[in-house]
Amino acid sequence: MDQSAVSVDVVALRFWTADTAVGFGIAARGHEPFTGRLALPGVLLGRGERLADAAARAVSAKLGVPRAALGPVGQLVTFDEPHRDPRGPTLSIVMWAVTGPHEGPAQWVSFDEPPALPFDHNSIVATARGLLAGLLWKDLPLTRALLGARFPATRAVDLAASLVGARPDAANLNRTLAGIPGLVKTGERLRTRATGRPAAVWAFRDP
């Protein structure tokens, strides 16, 4: 019996200091099928290769993200529709990865307005967004990598709104942040908006 190929496709996340929403990275494909079309970064899983290593390879090779700018990586879901790839049956193991500031050729787009992508990448993006929203605040490496070691509450609002698709209730978000292990309110306040009160500052204790 012929075996399906296994690809690792990555939803690479950007939420840098000046960003007000989470973006995911796409780049033009350099070969068939769909040459020139913007797509998620992906590679075929090498023999004996670990998923996190394949994800890092995809983000580096396809998006131009230096390894030094790549943060935590995690697994989300598998897409196994037999006809998802015109080259033949190919499983897609979908990973997330957080990127830090760097210069590179990737395009970073909003979850709210993704362009038309080849294969089943639009379905991957939509599914990944919901799963990432469920991991937010629970998966500490993901949450901390996106927010940074110290952040104003307004940044947590922007992060939640980007992944959930709606602004969180302020009181509920405050309770959620207070319940995260190792996260404390510093007592400082930081003005992040032209109007309104300065935002409370939160910080992760060093592990």
What key phrases describe this protein's structure?
three-stranded antiparallel beta sheet; alpha+beta; 207 residues; seven-stranded mixed beta sheet; 2 domains; single chain; 5 helices
Specify the overall morphology.
elongated
Helix content: 25-40%
Give the class-level CATH name of the largest domain: Alpha Beta
- Which fold name fills CATH's third level, the topology of the largest domain? Nucleoside Triphosphate Pyrophosphohydrolase
Q: What's the SSE pattern?
A: EEEEHEEEHHEHHEE
CATH superfamily of the largest domain: Nucleoside Triphosphate Pyrophosphohydrolase
- Which class do the helix and strand fractions yield? alpha+beta
**Beta strand %:** 25-35%
Main pleated-sheet profile: 7 strands, mixed
Number of strands: 10
CATH architecture of the largest domain: Alpha-Beta Complex
List unreliable stretches of 5+ residues.
none
* N-to-C span: 49 Å
How many domains? 2
What is the alpha-carbon Rg in Å? 18 Å
pLDDT averaged residue by residue = 96
Total helical segments? 5
Protein architecture, described:
The protein is of the alpha+beta class. The chain folds into two domains: 131 residues, Nucleoside Triphosphate Pyrophosphohydrolase; 56 residues, no CATH class. β9 and β10 form a beta hairpin. The longest helix has 15 residues. The N and C termini lie far apart (49 Å). The mean pLDDT is 96.
How are the SSEs placed, and which strands pair?
Blueprint: E1 5-14, E2 23-28, E3 38-39, E4 42-44, H1 51-63, E5 70-79, E6 90-99, E7 107-110, H2 121-135, H3 140-147, E8 150-152, H4 153-164, H5 170-178, E9 183-190, E10 199-204
Parallel strand pairs: 1-6
Antiparallel strand pairs: 1-2, 1-4, 2-3, 2-7, 5-6, 8-10, 9-10
InterPro entries: NUDIX_hydrolase-like_dom_sf
GO molecular function: hydrolase activity
Protein name: NUDIX hydrolase
